[in-house]
Amino acid sequence: MGLVSLRRSAGCVLAGLLYLFAASGVIADTKPLKLNTTADHSKFKELQREFQSGPEVTKACLSCHTEAAGQVHRTKHWKWEFLNPASGQKLGKKEVLNNFCISIASNYSACTSCHVGYGWKDASFDFTSEENVDCLACHDTTGIYKKPPGLAGHPQLKDVENPPGSGKITKGIDIAKVAQKVGKSSRDNCGSCHFYGGGGDGVKHGDLDSSLAAPDKDLDVHMDATGLDFTCATCHKTSSHDVAGSRYTPTAMDKGGAHMRGKEDKSNPATCVSCHDTAPHKQDARLNTHTGKIACQTCHIPEFARGGVPTKMSWDWSKAGERDAEGKQIVRKDAKGHIIYESRKGAFELGENVKPEYFWFNGDVNYTLATDKVDKTDGVTRINWLGGSPDDGKSMIWPVKVFRGSQPYDPVNKTLVKPHTAGNDDTGYWKNLVWDKAIEVGMKDAGLPFSGKVDFVKTEMFWPITHMVAPKEKALACTECHSKSGRLAGITGIYIPGRDANSLVDTFGWGIALFSLVGSVGHGLMRIASRRKHEEKENG
Amino acid sequence: MKPAKILGPTLLLALLSVSLSASAYDADWKRGRIYYRSVCTSCHVALPVGQINPSSKTMAEWSGYLQADKHAKGKDSVKQYVSKSYRASIKSANKAAEKFADVPDQELLDDVKAFLVKGAKDGEAPASCS
Q1: CA distance B49 to chain A (A)
Q2: Which ipTM did the prediction report?
């Protein structure tokens, strides 16, 4: 080897080393560093392979995260079952009815696209299987992981023509790519189900829709993507995969005060008080006198569905079933292009920037189940209702979305019914538009009797509003409630200045004020006159 | 070629590839989403062209557009609107520009590209402006 060649080679190596040091941050700090995780999953051999199914991915996850599936098994996100300790009612998505999609019984393959599991296609689903836990639903960071309705919670991994014969190809997901990029749960993960509850964006809740994926400050002061940037889990603090917060036993009044680090606190961490304490108004302390009776949400969520996504306010199943002249199903839209009628679902009313209704609420939520008797002559059946009164010491005035509807029931057995809606089969209502066949299958799946007769009953559901918290500048002004026709006009059992008035007391009060004024002015005038008289006398 | 002659370049190439892979930036489509919606859309809503949904173009069209780097039919560049200097000029009135004031230009451009490609008409999750 010649000396010149050796020098050249050494020079090249030295230059390379210098470049490497610079690039790796030894000389200059240029290496991008992930600060939101301690592990880059793309570097794990277990995930550097092709996967044929979701459960295969889960197996790979569990080879390191050995306890994760067991933890998930204990949660409501897995069980969809909840025993209310106060009422003894067996609740959870598996049990209850609602007045939008109605029920999951016999519709598992569609509904369980939002289950944190794989393969729940009927009542025989194995809830003890660890491989059936879907890690990616909550830990995908790519935003491409989706579980289409009809696949029983499985993602679509291969290209599929959808609908068949249409020529439109829906691409399959590269599940290995998703697995290699897992991370902490984000708003997009939770939102992929909770924003779309009830069968579409913003349908169910009104205060949860896709506008919260990256909201501005006006829409949600906490989740503001360019500000505080809270994820859902910032409030819904999660422990051992169990997410805090419940629609079945919500915390209506939190007397516990702010949570403190290091101090064990088993109370719900997802309340306003758990951070802001019970006297949060520093600049205008008078407002703190409201916090004993008024939920924070009442003033700080002036309207819901504020992000440009309308929410359904009513759903009339009794109008479903129309066909056009050719016998095809119909879809009607409003001027903005939002669907207001579908043959398979009925008629809808939508709302944006909706003022809530207000109720006393103590945290108790009771349900009318499919085993409970329903009397159409009662007028409206409440599918759920909120406990509360002005004098039970546990209630506060809460903002609520009241979801109104009309849905099928059995007039002979006098029960609400669980129809088989989703499904490309001979009995699925969405395909066939025939109620009795659909209900027979649904009720059989639920193990409940059905007479064969179908009628419709008006129903209501009550959804406490707690998201879309506006900045304090946009909170309700005093006169929104302190006026005769204000927002709390219908609230009983509490004296609200400006709203509540007794003409006798008012006349008496104003009379005293008037007499005081006349007396003061009269006294002043007399003093002036007296002084002048005295001065004139002295000046002689 | 003698072994000594290829030793240097080979080692250099190896080192370069190692260093490049070590410093490859993993684009953050969520940050791109915030920047696109807060900065790009906030301007486009006010201008005659109106808002431009990511899903209004294909992945190839977005890649080509960003590669060409011609904004407003070539009157200026796209990169300019992602640059630190531009962010500094609008950060008093734009929270996204303020929040990402110190992000390197190329990283933020990659983030925006990741969002646009993902949200393209034929992308993995077609997206709108809002």
Answers
A1: 21
A2: 0.78
